[in-house]
Design brief:
Length: 325
Amino acid sequence: MTFTVDTHHHILPDFFFQATNEAGHPAGGVAPAPWSRASMFSFLDDASIDVAVTSISTPGVHTGDDAAARALARRCNELAAELIRDRPDRFGGFACLPLPDVDGALAELAYAFDDLRLDGVVLFSNARGIYLGDSRLTPLFEELQRRAAVVFVHPNPSPDPSAHALGLPDNLIDFTADTTRAIAHLHYSNTFARTPDVKYIFSHAGGTVPFLAGRFAILDEMDVIPGAEARETAAETFRHLYWDTAASWGDPVLRMLRDVVGTDHVVFGTDYPYLPRHLAVSCRADIEASPELTDGERTAILGATATKLIPRLAVLRPQTQTRGA
């Protein structure tokens, strides 16, 4: 079996879920299966996944109170670090930050990297309505650039109430749309250009960006957004970013990703535990069996590219893994 790293793998301990999700109205509109360490190991083994890089999910840790958000981020990050300490052969971890509290985010970033030795950070497409290209977040992105960090970007619901007026779950349309907004804002605010050493991974194949790549190219050709002289074109920028396969692993999407970003910048993700278990298990097997991919592309997507982003995991690749808890 091809060595496999799940870069889009959520931990949802009760203390996080209860603090951030309303009973009966989970963020995103779809309630995940209950999370536990035992269920997580069982899933990884059933899906033949060697390593999971964990992160919390929507809506992040900030629900309106800076102090509470800082405390919740610390607790989540220490759990992620504990999983790695217990099973370094099975886990990596992305730290969460209490944005939009920038001072708190900088302090937690330092602790997560320097003390807990986590592998990167998870940021959300917007933090309580503040998108990632906002100038208020500049100090954080300067620090991420200084550290050449891996940044996993996960969607949040749009802050615009009209985006939720159709009565549909946010994860159907709005999550992909908000990821698209975040990528466009990061690009045209020149944040990507100012952070060339940050390794960005975008959820769900970048939302709608691969499909809209031609529109980005037209807009660049029209030269209507200031600052073009300081950034690459969108087409060039997209090939520097990374894109995961969570809920986006079908052959048509893989073909689009090959054309727009190159399969060497695609990584595997399951979105566990939000997908029904049988789908989350089968998505890896579908990529393994896809006639659309060459052997080299399959190896890169399932795990090899992730080990380049997180070199600590590379030593696990040639070893025979002992799965299970």
